[in-house]
Amino acid sequence: MFLLVLMLIVFCYAMFQGGFVSWFLFYSFLPFALFALGVSLYPLGSFSGERSFSHREFVAGEPVKVRVELKRGTAFPLFYLIVQEMAGNSLPGSRMRGAKRLVFPGFRKTFTLDYTVQNIPRGEHLFQGIRLKTGDLLGLAEREKILPLEDRILVYPSYEEMVYRPFENRFDQGAASSNERISRDSTMSVGVREYQPGDRFSWINWKASAKRNDFMTKEFEQRQSHEVLVLMDCQDVPQFEAVVAFCASVLRAMLRRGVEAGLLTVGGERFMVPVRGGEDQQHKLLYHLAKIKADSTIPFDQVLAAESFAGRQNTLMLITAKLTEGLIDKAAYSSKGNGAVTIFLVKKSQEPVSGSELSLKTVARSRGIRVFSVYEGHFAEAFSEVNSG
Question: Is 321 exposed, middle or buried (0-12, 13-18, 19+ CB in 10 A)?
Answer without folding.
Answer: buried
